[in-house]
Hints:
Helix content is 73%, strand content 3%.
Amino acid sequence: MERSVNLTTSRLRNGALAAVLLVDALGLAAVAIRPWDRPDAFGAATADWLLLTHETNPSTWLTAALLLAVGGLALVALATASHAAERRFWLLTALVTCALSLDEVAAGHERMADVLRVDGTVGTYAWVLPGLVLASIVSAAFARGVVVLPPRTRRDLAVAGVVYLAGALGVEAIAGWWDSGHGNENMPYHLISFVEENLEFAGVVLAGTAILGHAAARRRSLTIRFG
């Protein structure tokens, strides 16, 4: 007996948004508890773990899972691409998103701060500067391939990239500046980081929706059967 699963764009998008809202609700509840001020209070350790600023917690897992899902969708788009330039674009998309997913889990960009130290507007978040250089190189590579895509797909992916980078580099730099002057155990820092993480969430969800919309416009479908 076989069963097929019909996953529409709206269902996938709504599922991702529901997961983001759940993580946000837990993160805001953790901020309200202020575990940095009351580390010995009941539930403070759990609240500290749920803060969106920290690694190896639900928000990290969700970001990594969403990025990996976008990489999988890019591979599906790669399989249905009709031009070599488009195939290269989707392959690059899959590689970049999977690398970002791995970085989220391994916290590779935070490790860079142990080697690089930059004073000034980015505070102790030294990896922001090499991150800007890397983002510029990757964006240039994307720009060469994105021209072969339909206008709507180009626009949607561009918006997704801008939103993601605004959080991952822009707001992250602001968080680093605040951290360097005021520390990271205070309400403003955690609220800044909350905005940063949600911009990253939004960028990834928008990218996934853009790829699904691209597939729908080309009348492509993916059927999963369990037998």
